Amino acid sequence: MTKSDYFSSEQEQLARFAKAMAHPVRITILQLLSSKACCYHGDMAEELPIAKSTLSQHLNELKDAGLIQGNITPPTVKYCINKENWAKAKELFVRMFDEVALEEDCKK
Asked: What average pLDDT does the segment 43-61 reach?
């Protein structure tokens, strides 16, 4: 049995979302984007106390996980929340937390 046989696709997706969100800068980026329809890379670079190259790395991690999407219109890149995947992430996290809560209830 291989690892891919053991873990469900939902478990792997949830882990990917969690990994992408496992940095305070990325959480801040998600909060910033959730408060606006979209945001340009340059605008985020002015708001966050990190180098543009570091910001790009964090944006790429979030984009690779599918939590955000970017539209390239040279010379700018505009990012926004990927609403479909954001809803999926929320569903998976809620389900996991509910399952853990049920397991805790069983231990009492």
From this structure: 94
